[in-house]
Amino acid sequence: MLERPDDLRRGTGADPLSTFEQALRDRVPSREALLAEGKAQTARQRRRKQALGGGLSVLLMAVALWMADPAWHSEEVRTAVGQRDSLTLADGSQVLLNSATHLRVERRLRSRQIELLAGEATFTVEHADSPFIVRSQGVSVLDIGTVFNVRSDARGVAVAVLEGEVEVSSTQSPPQRLYNGQQVLATGGRIGAGGVVDRVRVTAWQQGKLRFDGTPLREVIVDIQRYRLAPVRLADPRLGELRVSGEFDSAAIEELIELLPAILPVLVVRGGDGSVVISGL
Questions:
Q1: Angle at alpha carbon of residue 229, lines to 238 and 141, rounded to 5°
Q2: By CB atoms within 10 Å of each CB, which of 54, 201, 231, 233 scores lowest?
Q3: Torsions phi, psi of 104, nearest 5?
Q4: Rounded distance between C-alpha atoms, residue 57 and residue 90, angstroms
Q5: Among 132, 118, 119, 129, residue whose Cα is nearest residue 89
């Protein structure tokens, strides 16, 4: 014969179903508790998504910053008319500056860059992991372990490789490799055909000389102008086709101007403000 629990035998009146329901309530969360837990879980997921989204945004910003390669430090360097100077960069690279030259030296996030705003300079580049780039008039010169000269004036940007090689590029022309002994002239952002470097002429300024070899007078005047403040002008543009040869002292520019009538069919007229007009006979 089956025995009943003591509470039933004793007639306590306890309801087994009620006892089961209470035990079930103790083990199974209530609707309110489930809702509260659901809200809490949703909030945790939202915070995780926000944290993930914030981290992704920071990563994207870091990548964009790296690609933009911003300058975090820049320095202006100038030489006066008639002055030459030398500069050692933070990475050990050497720069020789010609008269009336203006450079902006930039330290960037992932590159070393210099903007040649005007004048002429020779760069002897120290090897490093970050690229070395010289910019001028929309033209970029990327060093590939070398010594090179860059001139920037009214004639355009002239690049001459004295050792090693460079890559010259612009928005107007595809990249062009130049090797030891080669040079190129870019005008209006367009890179011309390469040629052979006249090393003596290209580096003459470093010895305080101007060297011309059948050079048109209009180009001679551009070089003369770098060494004087007052302007030198041609009365007739056709005179610019006259040719000049010889080596002259850049510290004696006024003597060179006075010498022009002796080597060319021209007259030199000086103004009270120091300006010079060159006219034909």
A1: 75
A2: 54
A3: -120, 110
A4: 33
A5: 132
State the Cα–Cα distance between residues 150 and 250, nearest whole angstrom: 18
For residue 20, give both structure tokens. Answer: 């089961």
Q: Which two tokens stand for residue 253?
A: 């520019």
For each of the chain's 281 residues, which pLDDT tens digit applies?
444 445 444 444 556 666 656 665 666 666 676 677 767 777 777 777 666 666 666 556 555 544 556 677 889 999 999 999 999 999 999 999 999 999 999 988 889 999 999 999 999 999 888 999 999 999 999 999 899 999 999 999 999 999 999 999 998 899 999 999 999 999 998 999 999 999 999 999 999 999 999 999 999 999 999 999 999 999 999 999 999 999 999 999 999 999 999 999 999 999 999 999 999 98
Burial of 165 (0-12, 13-18, 19+ CB in 10 A): middle
Instruction: Tell me the pTM.
Output: 0.75
What is the model's pLDDT at position 47? 74
Closest CA to 224 of 278, 184, 272: 278
Q: In one letter, which amino acid is 131? A: P
